[in-house]
Amino acid sequence: MEAYERLMTARDAKRPNIDFYINELFDDFIELHGDRLYKDDKAIVAGIGIFHDIPVTVIGHRKGKDTQENIECNFGMASPEGYRKAVRLMKQAEKFNRPVITFVDTPGAYPGVEAESNGQSNAIAESIACMSNLKVPVISIITGEGSSGGAIALAVADKVWMLENAVYSILSPEGFASIMWKDASRAKEACDIMKITAQELYDFGIIDGVIRENKKFIVTLDGMLYEEIKNLKKKKLEVLVKERYMKFRKMDGLYNE
Amino acid sequence: MLISDVFERKKRHLRNLEKARKKVNEKKNNHLTAYERIAALCDEGRFRETDKELTSKNPINFPDYDEKREELTKKCHMNDAIVTGIGRIDHKKVAIGVFDTRFFMGSMGTVVGERIVRLVERAKKDELPLIIFSASGGARMQEGLFSLMQMAKTAAAVRHFQEKGGLFISCLTNPTTGGVSASFASLGDIIIAEPKALICFAGPRVIRQTIGQELPEGFQRAEFLLEHGMIDAIVDKSDMRDVIIKILRMHEA
Question: Which domains does chain A possess?
């Protein structure tokens, strides 16, 4: 499949979304709302649940499944309040020693007047910094569209996996084409140049695993998560944080050949 | 050294500083190059550049990227968008990084990210204050997802440095946007901006397209950010060195 087809697949409204993953993977999920500062951003869903026997914190983007939900969730484009809610609940997870699992599916952080006024840059920066220093295991799964700062804000993890047809990019291909060639309609061309597919990013060493999208993929994901959390939980917290730091530290593209 | 030599040196230093500052004032509304900024900031002759040899390996094989970089390297006498090094400001040793917008709009790719992280790690090891002057269009498109990863890398380095007690003064100059403003640049213990500097996550053009209306006057300028509680202070280019000296003095161990 070509990159552009994968982009279209990744954006398909019928694709499994955060609610699907929560239902399939976690028991007794309780959604926790609000950033304790300003409001509750529906573009990010967060809460606690049981994974096998382990209490975990789950955070992810929600795009919404129909037009009304799309609008409520701002199509998965989070505002500062969303990232601040994520930070609040990641710190809570750290306090109670719960692993954090994030599900990334966003066209990007919201580019709006209110979002800018309330410190979109600051909120994303704080979320990245918080994840980089979190003293519990963190696993991120790019399930659909992982675009720009809005995606990395929830994807600084010990393990980052992508679904086979998910895409992960510095900017939406439309945005990229618009910046590079002042022509958003050249998105297909941008897709080929940008290297956004799971396999390409795995080959670069930027992501740690690709999940094949077959009928049993959720069982596979469940197994992978269980194994990995068990592994990560064995590590000393200082080692865990140090290794996470080094993992991103090495993504310099300078010595990779 | 003779006393007269000391005086002579001091006088020469002040003269040169005066020259650098005059240039700063003349260029009030224009960009300073990284080296002009460093000259205006550091004690005379007290800056040693580090990691100059790092160059991009064009990680996603972006068409014409190598040629463009080569062209800019010749034109601007620098091989990427940031100059980093160890300098002295009023005799105080500091780790300094300064962006230069002439090179790919000051965008952050693998070299900028790596230079920043090495600078921060050096500051951490030697317990130096860290000062970064940002001026950037954001993440470098030509290096694809590698550029996005530099956000994680630089923000993590700064946070780990701060956890160890390090002081980070983040200076935002025109423009500081996208992947730079949404990573290390927003994490300063003290964040200073220059008057009227554009500081934002999404640029005005993108927002205008999204909401389909004109933006309020002064939106996303330094004064707007100050009003909304996002930065600590606005400082003129010509006062920047003095303010930084004061801050450094208050953080001496």
Answer: 3-246 (3.90.226.10)
